[in-house]
Amino acid sequence: MDALPSEAESASLTMLIDAGLEPVLHSGQPDIELKTQPASGDTLAYERILAPVDRFPSMLEAITSQEIREVWNGSGTTPSFTTIYPSQDIVPELEGLLGPPGPSVKPQAPEAVSAAVWGDPMGIGIVPFEALTPRLRSIKVDGLSVVDNEMASSDWPLATRVWLHPRTGLGKQALIQAGGNRPTTNRDLDKLTVVAMTGVTAMARNTAVAIEKAGDYAFPARLVGPGLATADITIISNEIPFVEGCVADNTLNNLILCSKPEYFAALELSGVDAVGLTGNHMNDFGYDSDLASLNLYQEKGVPVYGGGANDEAAGAPLILEHHGNRLAFLGAKSTGRKARVLSVPGRDPKIRDLPGSTATRWRPTSGPSSRRWTWFSRKPSTPSSTQPETTRPSHFSSKWLTSRHSAMPGPTS
After folding, report:
1. What domain count does the chain have?
2. Are residues 19 and 111 located together in one domain of the fold?
3. Does residue 1 form part of some domain?
């Protein structure tokens, strides 16, 4: 029997026990043998996916299993990376897959892999799938992404796997009985949630002109939409309202923006599951148009966050659940590059029932006055003089203002 991970034996016994069998470890001639190389009729009992990683902002997107092997054993080099920092707890498994390590392999304590990779621009790490963090981004191997929810784990080249191999007729019968049970794996697709979040979307100006020219309301999403739709949860940030009769206007310096409601087809092609409304153009065509846009999202069954019909709705978190994972989404406008967030004091009740995006209050990290505030107005860019104040829903929208020497500025336009 090949060298096995310590967890593989218990995982194999668990599979047999769950099938109603009573396995007994045997040092003589067994009915079932554990193997790391499969043969016909074998049953997968254990799998551990290992993932090459780099620091999150790295430009390295993909490598090959051959590159990993050659740098690991010292038989070759690659311009992609020069050093491998594996988590030391998986080195025995990597040796089983790649052979003895060479001088370019520098094992690290599990908690030290991130720092080692961040400290070496030409280094990558290797960690178990469950050890991925926001600071460590997985790298594609042989064109496959370990965080792709459409990738079968069996296709991943860097993994430890253990199969149950029947040695006797009794062993064959036992594996037939256990065949319906799933193997132990650290990459369970039933627990995996892939979230895709876009940057700002504004189907206006030249984009709107291109849509009209193409005669295809989903035109902007024809290339990228299907890819976004593969995510389990797709969040799109749309910073402008849908307005009936909106006219494509790409004149120079036009900053009053809208989309035709028909352009929603582009969001649908992208598999949109929710929309962030933190853009600063939501009230460009008045409060009624903003409310109509919110109604469109509701009609389409697409929840929103970061904006809403009133202050309470705009500031409420959006909670989505998938595969037992509970995710919360919050959104707010911000301004200034060197700033830190302060708690938001109570706002003037007059503006709480107006539509728009949630605003964040900021104070610069440096400056002569600690009472300098930046905030957003909810007044639309093109307000309607006939629109009653009481019917205006609540967004902080297109303008931002700075007040000096005022501990608590009031609403302003």
Report:
1. 2
2. yes
3. no
User: What sections of 215-286 are H helices per DSSP?
Assistant: 225-229, 264-269
**Are both 225 and 91 inside the same structural domain?**
no
Q: Which residues of 99-133 are buried (b: 16+ CB within 10 A; e: fewer)?
A: eebeebbebbeeeebbebbbebeebbbbbbbebee
- What is the pTM for the complete model shown? 0.75
Asked if the model's pLDDT at residue 87 lies above 70, the reply is: yes
Report the CATH number at residue 13: 3.40.190.10
In a domain, 400, yes or no: no
* Length of the chain, in residues: 413
Can you spell out the DSSP letters for 100-151?
S--TTB--B-GGGHHHHHHT-TTEEEEEEGGG-BTTEEE-EETTB-TT-TTS
Which CB contacts under 8 angstroms, 24+ apart, belong to 199-203? 199/237, 200/237, 200/238, 200/239, 200/279, 201/236, 201/237, 201/238, 201/239, 201/267, 202/238, 202/239, 202/240, 202/257, 202/259, 202/279, 202/281, 203/238, 203/240, 203/259, 203/263, 203/266
Based on the domain organization, do 61 and 101 belong to the same domain?
Answer: yes
Query: pLDDT digits over 187-241, tens only?
Result: 999 999 999 999 889 999 999 999 999 999 999 999 999 999 999 999 999 999 9
Do residues 172 and 164 lie in contact, with contact meaning Cβ atoms separated by under 8 Å? no
Residue 162 backbone class (left: φ over 0; alpha: ψ -120 to 50; beta: rest): beta
Q: Using CA atoms in the order 260, 262, 268, 274, what is the torsion angle rounded to 10 degrees? A: 40
In a domain, 379, yes or no: no
Compute how many other C-beta atoms are within 10 angstroms of the C-beta atom of residue 73. Answer: 16
Inside any domain, residue 183: yes
Surface-to-core class of residue 48, CB atoms within 10 Å of its CB (0-12 exposed, 13-18 middle, 19+ buried)? buried
By residue range, what is the domain housing residue 221? Answer: 202-301
- What is the distance, to the nearest Å, from the Cα of residue 393 to the centroid of all Cα atoms in its chain? 31
Q: Domain ends where: 241, 271, 301?
A: 301
Q: Which of 301, 328, 359 is the last residue of a domain?
A: 301
Residues 329 and 255: their CA atoms lie apart, in Å, by: 28
**Are residues 289 and 148 part of one domain?**
no
